[in-house]
Amino acid sequence: MAGGTPKLHEKQIDVAQSKARFKVIRAGRRSGKTTFEIENMLFKAVSGKGKSIFYVAPTMKQARSIVWESLKARLGGIGDLNEARLEAKVPTDSGEQSHIHVFGFEARENFRGMKADHITFDEVDTCKDFFIGWQEIFRPALIDTAGTADFIGTPKKENPNLRRLEKESENDLDWQCFQFKTSDNPHIPVEEIEKAKAEMDSQTYKQEILAEYVENAGALFKYTALIDTFTNTITKSPEKYLVIDVADDGSDTTKFSFWQGLEEYRRETFSRMNTESIVMQTREYQQEERIPMSQTIVDAIGVGAGVASNSLLDGIVGFKSSYGPIRTDIDPVRLPNVHYLKDAPLTSEYKNIRSQCVFTLADHVNNHKIASKCTGRDKEVIIEELATYQDASQGDGKRMATPKEDVKELIGRSPDDSDTWIMRMYFVIREKMLPHQSEDAARLSREIEERFSINQSRQSMNSTR
Questions:
Q1: Predicted pLDDT of residue 73
Q2: Is the same domain home to 106 and 190?
Q3: What's the total number of domains in the chain?
Q4: Does the CA dihedral 378-383-388-394 come out positive or negative?
Q5: Residue 40 falls inside a structural domain
């Protein structure tokens, strides 16, 4: 190639010599990951016959700025370039042509039905809904060709796709993981790295230069524990529960989540259900799974309020996020990535029942006390939704999780799938309710207060003083 073949450094050579089909490359800034991928894509293109090679960045704009200009320079006028489509036709050793396509993950739907011999994903931790795209669109494109894929990028604590790829590829011989530090690139002056160390805070330096994972201190859910939830084996109680998240405005879907103890064993999703159809479907599922009304809970906001109050579902639990928290005999949940002094006082209350349920769910997930048999898209959206939750307490002595509307804005949709897990925690909390908060005790307490008030009023009226 006219641009001249760059000399690979030691870590790049390790990747090049690997026989793994899928390679995960976690790398620091300017460590040479993109340079290596350009060489890798060109090698695969010219050494094969009519190969289709794809480079995928988070957006088309990033794809152009990160790799397209460098690819053109490396080709040095060889091949046929299409600037509008960011495609290059490259001559092969056999006299044919291979195609290199450069595009953004944001346009992934356009990839459906295509075949690929190799795909390079760059800045993986910046791609939203990455695993849904990988499993539903890109992975199938490699089946016919037995194609390969590289996943590269600098780690991000907020969207740790690389971390998950590394975890899920453990003990799989088709996969191999690599790590570059910025200092592994011999072309980066040592003094520049030292300056970066002096100017950056320690967490940023570890993430951006050393390519190490940094825990998200405010996150309620440990990411690895969240992934483990879908493979956990737990001891299940015999009780069954049905959790229903109702479509609010016609754009959402209605979710039916089935639990035995703390294991979700089934999930059904419906679109465009009205109140009557939700009520009838609920009764059908209750009979089919033998789930009592008292162990069925529905999100009683908007359309769900009509379901919760329907006479055919008398005894069902209506859940409202704004309800006050329940006093229990358990300690407030601690954050997973924060270190506490031994005798440090903890906030003793929660802002509302939803926050209490979110914190309780985080405790169960982080300590592997909950499991789910969800797979595919259901699994992916639950992980994405719950990974978004932070401690949003405002210093008023009450613990608060990220409000639902904020989560919706962050992920671009309503977090309906994980809402079913959050509501399931209501029953966990209710089991820990303090004795004086039981329904019978509360009713008796009100009767006593009313009787006392009446007696006090009569005493005042009869007084001669």
A1: 87
A2: yes
A3: 3
A4: positive
A5: yes
